[in-house]
Amino acid sequence: MEILAVYLMLGVVAGILAGLLGVGGGLIIVPVLFALFTQIGMDHAVIMHVAIATSLATILFTSIASTYAHHRHRAVIWSAFWRLTPGILCGAFIGASFADYLPTSVLIICFAIFELIVAYQMWFAFKPGASRSLPGSSGMLATGGVIGSVSAIVGIGGGTLTVPFLSWCNQGIRHAVATSSACGFPIALASVVAYLFLGQDEPNIPKQSIGYIYLPAFMSISLMSLLFAPLGAKFAHRLPVMTLKKIFAILLTLIGVRMLLVIV
User: Fold this and answer.
1) Who has greater pLDDT, 24 or 70?
2) CB 150 within 8 A of CB 95
């Protein structure tokens, strides 16, 4: 019951952060699941794979809820979404397949380094200058491939990559965040399909799992994040978001360093 309570609370935190700061819950979900799975004695060989796959599975539902809210305000750039999606689908499937071959220690390093990069970006409020328009079909395909593959490897919805790209391409931040939320769905969809398939023959998968997705955590986190993401969006208009981002950057730094120390 204690572990279930933590799953539920994790869903609350992930949902609020997604609505408040515009970042995917995977930045928090993956390291917390790693710690919880370690505590319950999950096999070390698959612990990061299960944490990443389960995180991506929850993004399927939070992305739908978030996208619907943004669509009601006509903020999603659907033309950019559809042009990015083919590359995202291919990239996410390839990224998940690549992650399947990586040992847990390498996945930990990849995630920790990515966490530190995001923390740096948040702390210094780095935003690429709006210097060009959206690229052509081949450019959008390649960009979607990079976003999808990186997201599938570290278990996120891609917002920390999609938003800067769209901002760089002269898209307003409101539209960039909304479109990024929509892009989280194809990232999660292709990744989940891959992790479901790739985990079928893995002998160390824990009980109550389908492929690499651990159902108790997936269902609990998804439910609460769906309920609390709208609350985070309301807070975004009332709280000092830039101050909160700096606090979150410190938290991400601590998490990244802590995960690196795990393998030392």
Assistant:
1) 70
2) yes
